[in-house]
Description:
By secondary structure, the chain is mainly beta. The chain has three helices and 19 strands. Strand 10 and strand 11 form a beta hairpin.
Amino acid sequence: MKHNAWIDWSRLVRGALMLGAGFGLLACSSDDGGETTPGGGNTSPTPEGTPYITRVLDFRPAVGQFVNELPTCEAGDTQETMNDKVLAAIGNNRRGMISLGGFGGYVVVGFDHTIENREGLCDFRVLGNAFYASGQADYGSSEPGVIEVAYDANGNGQPDDDEWYEIAGSAYATCDESWAGAAEAAGNDIRTIRDYEITYYRPTTEPGAPTEEYIRWEDNQGASGYRAMNSAHLQSYFPQWIDEDRLTFRGTRLPQNGIDLSGEGTNYALYLFAYGYADNYPNTSNESAIDIAWAVDASGAPVDLPGVDFIRIHTGVNQENGWLGECSTELMGVEDLHLLEEEIESNTIKK
């Protein structure tokens, strides 16, 4: 497959995002306009439960080219109305799309039941818009999101700070991915960094035109840089419903998986991680499924959870990929595999 053919196809898919779609406050609206039932409370999945998202508790994207567009932010929007819009897009199996922007941007979702942790099986799937490049199985578009899960042990209907555990994906400890050598040779930072912190600064003016030096960022590793504005998206990339002049995000930062195959900045291949992340494999692939048993505590020790009531996802890679723009995790929903009667053995994913 010629590289330029893949570029054209990728551009088409990126552009289609705009055609296909127009953290912690209150329960959002359901389909009939009423409030959804708060999730959690140590309940087990029942036939009456829905396999899909029924609550959006928080949505705070980092800066990015689809921010204020997926979903659309309008004058007067607040954190609560934006949470509502996220639920309208990805809740209840609607399969719209939201963007978390660059590294650290996140969403917190909940359900009307506890997603059960069944031994030996994957328990849920996070739906994204990852895809393979034509004729390829190792790369295409993977913009991986780090997944954290929480079990509502005290039944208060909210994810408390001490209830979050990270899903230890394939790059949790070190980058042993098949593409790690090529990424390092290309100059990528292939470290996994926990407790990574990045701050984005609101621009004093909006350029309204493409520029490489648009929104400045600094991290706690001594690095700094800019988010670029591209010609396809000229709106503000800074979340407009947020009043602060700077946004700071913390969490696990994954290895940079974008490699420029052209050597000229025109053909970025975004390589897939082996398992354990959102927006990494196509939704139809078993490798997009997640086993709750992969959850670990802050020291990296496995935890034994009966299930999960809340899921938090943040963009895991800090990287600009040429004309594709920043790595930004996109989401379309979450599915409880048990309520959908879909059995995927976790040892077929994590080998």
